[in-house]
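A reminder from the course coordinator: this example appears on the midterm review sheet, so study it carefully.

Given structure:
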């Protein structure tokens, strides 16, 4: 029934789009971005009294986005290299239980206050933490839910934005990360999300029912709220889970995750932030309570541009009983095709 409803809505929007060709030349463009990031991250593990080293969230991505009119736009994002190796185009491309080379591949069809998104998109979950692009995430402060979720899935989302553009409500149906293959597994994720943006605060609240087996669902609630106070931004995220069990059967671990961030941005060139996260013990007693705390600094040295970012973090992770320091740089190169 849900699939038939989404197909009917898509047909109606496409008909509306076909009768609105007088605006086709408005907002037409295409742009490619090359995004590279290199991190150097030494760590010290107190329990083993030894040093460790990794490349943090080093990566290379490309994006291709554009629009044919004010009613139709697209976005494609490919992950070519990450800190765990090269993402080959043929590797796990047809799977939904793993993140692969193709992160995003969707089209937006809009008419009036309605937008229909079709293709591979992010599951509508996760508060403000999962609203960040991969290249803006720091492993010193990421949650187990973010780290473990196969978040890019195939399907559709219908969104409605009120006339003041302050609130957007959406319903989404996509393939489930518990299914091996997007459609043949016949497992689905259903999400409802509310986004609000005002002068002094914003929200990203969502509920997701993620199908683990036929007619058996994992229920995920995520509540993200931000407050803006001059140069200060306060962010709070809550998830009703503490990540995933991975030893015997990959599944969501019920519990509570609380995240808080205080960011100070005195200019567009520089900002610093303190992050903290507390994960309660899971409700089955298999995972212990733990926490993370970190400081993050970001600097944009180029005049009139944020293409180059220099960043550094320092953090403590109680689960691994380790401290880490990281320095790195991210650069975005973009060019317009039309």
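Designed residues:
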């Amino acid at each position: 029934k849900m699939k038939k409803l989404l197909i009917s809505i898509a047909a109606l929007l496409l008909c509306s789009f076909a009768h609105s060709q007088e605006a086709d030349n408005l907002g037409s463009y295409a742009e490619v971005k090359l995004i590279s990031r290199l991190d150097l991250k030494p760590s010290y593990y107190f329990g083993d009294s030894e040093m460790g080293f990794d490349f943090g969230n080093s990566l290379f991505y490309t994006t291709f986005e554009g629009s044919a009119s004010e009613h139709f736009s697209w976005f494609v994002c490919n992950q070519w290299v990450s800190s765990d190796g090269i993402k080959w185009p043929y590797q796990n491309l047809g799977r939904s239980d793993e993140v692969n080379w193709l992160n995003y591949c969707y089209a937006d069809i809009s008419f009036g206050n309605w937008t229909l998104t079709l293709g591979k998109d992010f599951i509508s979950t996760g508060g403000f933490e999962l609203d960040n692009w991969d290249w803006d995430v720091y492993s010193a402060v990421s949650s187990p839910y973010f780290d473990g979720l196969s978040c890019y899935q195939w399907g559709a989302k219908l969104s409605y934005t009120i006339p003041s553009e302050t609130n957007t409500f959406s319903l989404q149906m996509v393939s489930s990360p518990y299914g091996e293959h997007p459609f043949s597994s016949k497992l689905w994720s259903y999400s409802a999300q509310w986004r609000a943006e005002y002068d002094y605060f914003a929200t990203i609240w969502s509920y997701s029912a993620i199908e683990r087996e036929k007619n058996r669902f994992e229920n995920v609630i995520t509540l993200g709220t931000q407050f803006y106070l001059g140069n200060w931004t306060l962010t709070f995220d809550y998830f009703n889970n503490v990540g995933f069990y991975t030893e015997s059967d990959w599944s969501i671990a019920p519990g509570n995750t609380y995240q808080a961030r205080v960011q100070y941005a005195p200019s567009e060139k520089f900002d610093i932030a303190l992050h903290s996260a507390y994960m309660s013990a899971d409700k089955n007693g298999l995972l212990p309570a733990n926490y993370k705390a970190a400081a993050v600094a970001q600097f944009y040295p180029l005049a009139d541009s944020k293409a180059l970012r220099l960043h550094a973090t320092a953090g403590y992770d109680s689960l691994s009983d380790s401290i880490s320091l990281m320095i790195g740089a991210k650069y975005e190169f973009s060019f317009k095709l039309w």
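The longest strand covers residues 29-45. The chain is about 5% helix and 60% strand.
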